[in-house]
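pls ignore typos typing on phone
adenosine-5'-triphosphate + seq
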Amino acid sequence: MTRCDGVTVHAPAKINVGLAVGAVRSDGFHELTSVFLAVSLYDEVTATPARALTVTCEGPDADKVPLDQTNLAAHAAELLATLHNLPPNVHLHIAKNIPVAGGMAGGSANAAAALLACDALWRLGTPREDLLTICADLGSDVPFSLIGGAALGTGRGEKLTELPIAGAFHWVLAIAHEGLSTPVVFREFDRLAQGTRMPPPTIPQTLTHALAAGDATTLASALRNDLQPAALSLRPSLAATLAVGTEAGALAALVSGSGPTIAFLVTDAKAAAVIAAALTTSGTCRTARVVTAPAQGASVLPTPLGQGLGTAL
Ligand code: ATP
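k done
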């Protein structure tokens, strides 16, 4: 698959530098307050004209990605086509780098990327506001995959306020051998919290101020993920991964979202390389990736010169 066949969009993975979980709402979702941060680990989605809606996927986790209508990227294409009263005739090819069920919103990134790619391929010019509405219908994390950067999420995580962020934060991601199901982690959270009164979920201002100031040391002291005990309870081996990165000099570490990916905040690129090497040799994770934040949201990638949409349609 080459980019010149259609439109290629990349969208970033996210980590939650703050995730406060509140009570279960009447619709079954937990009330959340989340600080999303987009990191420089991207999936690419290429949309090409086709007779029907089809999906293919490549990458180390490709066998874990559904290729039918349950694929979030396919669902995104369908919703966009419905909005414009069009048949969803498109082939979506996903080049996957974001671990599946890794707590990094990989499926959401694919949905946001597919939405932008189809919008460009079908030359629809859908207003950003309408794209964001479709994103919120697709899932709690999808709107953030579209906007990227840093944002505060409330509701079930989908109501976003962009946050100011300065400089670049350096992270190492420890990617686990096996994923964790988000609903299962929430159920474990509920089991562990049984009988505890849940206060409204809040994020300390120190955290958002640290992002705005580009201050990694203060951010390290303010990282918070209420789902971490549940992820560790379901996957006790994550404690060993946390210990390796912390002993190798990370400023702080936390489970990303529902896990099992662990994000280590580090001072600079040099420290990141040392910690990534320690994690890789420890064998406590499948792989370690060095990333920076913030990363931009879903964006159309340039097509090679002379091979634009004019030739693809
Ligand atoms: P989040 O952090 O948003 O809770 P996650 O990163 O833990 O999600 P995903 O990688 O988005 O998890 O995948 C969760 C499940 O969604 C997968 O196990 C898979 O069955 C399904 N799925 C549907 N579409 C996709 C897609 N395009 N890519 C990956 N998984 C998908």
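The pocket of adenosine-5'-triphosphate is lined by residues 65-66, 70-73, 94, 100-108, 110, 141, 182, 257-258 (CB under 6 Å). The chain has a mean pLDDT of 94. more later
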